[in-house]
Design goal:
globular; 9 helices; 70% helix
């Protein structure tokens, strides 16, 4: 990745990760848990949320992570339901950013500005396009029901209580499943995660931006 590409992709990634984690912290705070606030995570400052290794990995292998927002379920009024919405807040925030980016892309297209690297306006459109794609990919990736992704907690909140023990048992193996899928994709060139994520990215890209 050259310097120009890095400068183009860095702002959308930082915004996507920061807004994602802030959304978790904000909804947790609204439901009565101030753990994130006490840890300085109820903030739109990227430095509060970025994990150094996770950020580096994003740019090296296009897979990384931010620091998880701490949540104490004992502070919540209805832990099972509230954790569902706290978990869903991150992916939903990325869908919102993707939607806004798609609208901006449509607006630029109406005035005949295309994504390119030769003009300032073209670079702005390209950054908006990347913002939409990055936020869609992050949102869809995170709703996969594999621990420690948000989708595993969303699934726990949706399923009847009798499935709770099964979900907790699967959480122990979730990180290994995730890493295994990533390594398999890198080693074989057949990305199972990509096969799950990119069709939805393409669908919502067409829906939000008409592309």
């Amino acid at each position: 990745m050259n310097i120009q590409s890095l400068l183009l992709i860095a702002p959308p990634i930082l915004l996507a990760l920061t807004f994602h984690e802030y959304a978790h912290a904000y909804v947790a705070h609204r439901y009565g848990d101030d753990t994130a606030q006490k840890n300085g995570r109820l903030s739109l400052n990227p430095l509060r949320h970025l994990d150094p290794l996770g950020t580096i990995m994003i740019f090296l292998v296009q897979f990384g992570w931010a620091k998880p927002v701490p949540v104490n379920p004992y502070n919540l009024r209805n832990p099972k339901k509230d954790m569902l919405w706290i978990s869903a807040a991150g992916p939903l925030s990325n869908m919102f950013l993707a939607f806004v980016s798609g609208l901006l892309f449509r607006l630029f297209s109406e005035v005949a500005v295309t994504p390119e690297r030769n003009t300032i306006a073209g670079l702005m459109v390209l950054m908006v396009f990347l913002s939409m794609k990055i936020n869609l990919a992050l949102a869809i990736f995170n709703i996969l029901p594999i621990a420690p992704l948000d989708g595993s907690k969303i699934l726990y909140g949706i399923l009847p209580p009798r499935f709770g023990k099964m979900i907790f048992a699967l959480e122990r193996y979730g990180p290994f499943i995730l890493i295994g899928l990533i390594i398999f994709g890198r080693a074989t060139g057949v990305s199972i995660l990509g096969g799950l994520i990119w069709p939805f990215v393409d669908f919502f890209s067409h829906l939000f931006a008409g592309i």
